[in-house]
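--- STAGE predict ---
source: upstream dedup step, 1 unique chain passed
mode: sequence only
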Amino acid sequence: MLQIELAGLKLRNPLILASGILGNSASLALRIEEAGAGAYTTKTITKDARPGYRNPSFVKLETGYLNAVGLANPGIDYFSEELDLMKKLLKIPVILSVGGKDLEEYEYVVKVGVEHGVDAFELNLSCPHVEKMGAELGEDLEAAINIIRRVKAVAHGRPIFLKLSAHYNYLKLAEEAVRAGISGFTAINTLRGLAIDIYARTPILSNIYGGYSGPGIKPIALKVVYDLYERFRNVPIIGVGGVDSWVSALEMILAGASAVGIGSAIATKDLEVFREIIEGLRRYLETEGFRSIVELVGLAHEEVSNPY
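--- STAGE serialize ---
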């Protein structure tokens, strides 16, 4: 009923841990699997270790969170030990989120990922708060497409998902990415945001700007997913952004997402959010008379009479 196939990956359900949330160790990955997730995405890993930005790098806001961690990670060579453990312990697919400042760095990380058996890759060309990486690369169409082509050449047939930003012309990049052979899209990354301490009279984050996540970005994420599905019906989409219930997960699926990423909701609902969403989706399918979650993908695009 909830099983899906995502660019060749077989998932027991459409829920995927989004990158950046509990994505840094095999022990956490095992907890995510036990909580019910259908696939696991690591935090974004670069060639060399990155210390990230100094604190404060995270702040809770009224309807979400603002973070500027700075893609802190131990580097792929060190992290490869965790990948080995993940592949030994987990039955669900492991997706390696890849970051970097240039083509060579992306290629290196993917090569190591292949050597250590990851099931798929997610190219982070959309991080909103790291200079000369992420969204800045995504805005450079030629550089982004060269990265996709080079990564595809060394990925040994493993699926490659492109993580998109709502800040740039995502449809133009998506169109060129499809031509370059991308397997699917992840939409969207966090949005650039700012929070100010009114008593200190300065920005709260040490980096000034950060990535905004949580329920506040869901309408924007839904629009991007809807736009992508409208243009690229046969390219699978992982919908991410503000999903914190089975209702919001279903909205993503109806908009066109084949799978749904769960991130910030874990901070408020803990790992129980996976079971809550799974149970809600199953009940909906039963009460509405659907045999499979796949039947609902993109259904909001069908011409129906407006009940309002």
